[in-house]
């Protein structure tokens, strides 16, 4: 075998191509690993607030920290409602769907408890047992509201079309609103 028969430049090109392929493969593996890691972190963060609400709803003795947890996990869209204009059950339903009404009912009830036990905390040292039950029920209602809003209870209804999904969701919100009226 002669040295002239082996082209050094061709060998170097092949070696560079092989190294490039190996580095590309390693880069893809690292990217997939980081992507999966970020998805897991996102899912943990997304489910941690639900876990805290489950803990609130299943706690035997509810305290002010549980009330603060319930209030913190709500969207504050209801904060713009004039609470002096509405009683607990009088919400402007002419311009809202059942989902907004449910969200506002949960928000107003939570705010009333927040005002009673946190803002006017000098009057009350302990949360009354009926209000403890109300806080647990509000946590359950908020979890159910989120469940409906995310569409987790739709099952195979996606095959029925958008309008039927919207009607089903409104029906679920109405059922939750009836439960809130009955329990809270």
Word description of this protein:
By secondary structure, the protein is an all-alpha fold. It is 68% helix and 0% strand. The chain contains five helices and no strands. It has helices at 8-58, 64-72, 98-119, 129-150, 162-183. Helix 1 runs antiparallel to helix 4 (129-150). The model has no long low-confidence stretch (mean pLDDT 82).
Order of helices and strands: HHHHH
Q: What structural category characterises the helix and strand content? A: mainly alpha
Oligomer: single chain
Mean pLDDT score: 82
Give the DSSP E fraction (strand runs of 2 or more residues). under 5%
Principal-axes shape call = elongated
Note poorly predicted spans: none
Count of alpha/pi helices = 5
The percent range for helix content is 55-70%
Number of DSSP E strands: 0
Radius of gyration: 28 Å
Q: Which sheet architecture does the biggest sheet show?
A: none
- N-to-C CA distance: 92 Å
What's the gist of this structure?
With 184 residues, this protein is mainly alpha-helical. The protein is 68% helix and 0% strand. The longest helix has 51 residues, at 8-58.
Key phrases:
mainly alpha; 184 residues
Task: Set out the fold topology.
Layout: H1 8-58, H2 64-72, H3 98-119, H4 129-150, H5 162-183
Helix pairs in contact: 1-4, 2-3, 3-4, 3-5, 4-5
């Amino acid at each position: 075998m002669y040295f002239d028969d082996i082209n050094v430049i061709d060998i170097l090109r092949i070696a560079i191509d092989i190294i490039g392929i190996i580095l590309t493969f390693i880069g893809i593996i690292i990217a997939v690993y980081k992507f999966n890691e970020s998805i897991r972190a996102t899912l943990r963060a997304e489910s941690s607030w639900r876990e805290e609400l489950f803990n609130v709803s299943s706690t035997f003795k509810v305290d002010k920290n549980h009330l603060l947890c319930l209030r913190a996990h709500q969207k504050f869209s209801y904060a713009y409602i004039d609470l002096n204009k509405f009683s607990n059950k009088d919400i402007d339903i002419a311009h809202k769907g059942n989902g907004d009404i449910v969200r506002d009912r949960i928000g107003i009830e939570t705010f009333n408890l927040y005002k009673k036990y946190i803002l006017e905390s000098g009057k009350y040292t302990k949360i009354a047992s009926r209000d403890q039950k109300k806080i647990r029920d509000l946590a359950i209602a908020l979890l159910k509201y989120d469940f409906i809003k995310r569409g987790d209870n739709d099952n195979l209804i996606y095959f029925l079309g958008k309008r039927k999904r919207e009607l089903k969701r409104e029906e679920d919100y109405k059922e939750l609103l009836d439960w809130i009226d009955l329990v809270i």
